[in-house]
Amino acid sequence: MTDPLPVVAPSSARLLTAEEFRHLASVPPEAEWFANITNPSTQRAYRHGVGDFMRFTGIARPEEFRAVTRAHVIAWRDELGHRGLGGSTVRHRLASLASLFEYLCNRNAVTHNPVKGVQRPRTESGEGRTPALGDHQARALLAAPADDGIRGKRDRAILSTLLFHALRRDELCKLRVRDFRHARKGVPHLRVSGKGGKTRYLPLHPGTNALIHDYLDTAGHGDDDGGALFRPVRNNRTGRLNAAITPDGVYKLVRAYSAALGFEIGAHALRATAATNALDHQADIAKVQEWLGHANIATTRIYDHRRTRPEDSPTFKVAY
């Protein structure tokens, strides 16, 4: 990927030096685009996608993006297909490149976006690939942490938070102690910092509320309002226990408990389970969209399996 922006030492007591101003004024728009992406997951995905395109085309300097044509993009798309990548992956790679060129167009660095008009692979179906658990599996997972110490109580609270509130891993890791103490019209709410800096407030499930209180009483950081809500039980590298559990830690936690139950899944499957369960029980899809923090309701429909249930098929409505 392109080089990051020059580092400017933070200080509230001075203005930019002439050297710092000169460096920032000379930043290529390509580097500026990447630095403007604040979500770590999006950064990783876009770095991977654009980096792959740069390797394919041999681009080594930011200004070389301005010579890219639609033919280059089509050739790259076809190469991704020849590698055996799925349609969804190819679409994501093209989306990362399109985002870069859209930014360059807005900055008048290029005259057009060469990704526009490039045919993208169709999605295989309107259903997501992430598996959703059955009710009996979800109940078993909630009861899986048998330890009654800090780890067991923390893990039960984490699993309940994921299964009843459909959070992304990053969203769960960003939770602060104060974020589960909001109330609206007398109902406890969870304050969630989602994608794009958007904040949403979710009614807190009573069972989750009780599990979090139990965890905090045992862990002892319930008074640290600004501190991380869910923390590692131990940290051998730093010896500090006040940092938040990492997204990778959440993934491994879910993976371990589910594998022990005989159905190994990732953390995102719990988000899919919550969304699917809510829709199956007749939750309004617009409310579920807001609950999940989706910008587009089409993304929410991926979790709506009601139209594919065999019992609802016209086959069983036919009567002779």
Question: What descriptive keywords fit this protein?
Answer:
DNA polymerase, domain 1; 320 residues; 3-stranded antiparallel sheet; 47% helix; 2 domains; hpI Integrase, Chain A; 5% strand; mainly alpha; globular
Characterization of the model:
There is one protein chain. The protein is mainly α. The protein folds into two domains: 18-106, DNA polymerase, domain 1, CATH 1.10.150; 135-308, Orthogonal Bundle (hpI Integrase, Chain A). Helix content is 47%, strand content 5%. The chain has 13 helices and three strands; from the N terminus they run H-H-H-H-H-H-H-H-E-E-E-H-H-H-H-H. It has helices spanning 18-25, 29-35, 40-57, 70-82, 87-106, 135-142, 150-165, 169-174, 206-219, 247-260, 268-280, 285-292, 297-301; strands at 182-184, 187-193, 199-203. A three-stranded antiparallel β-sheet has the order 1-2-3. A hairpin with a 2-residue loop joins strand 1 and strand 2 (187-193).
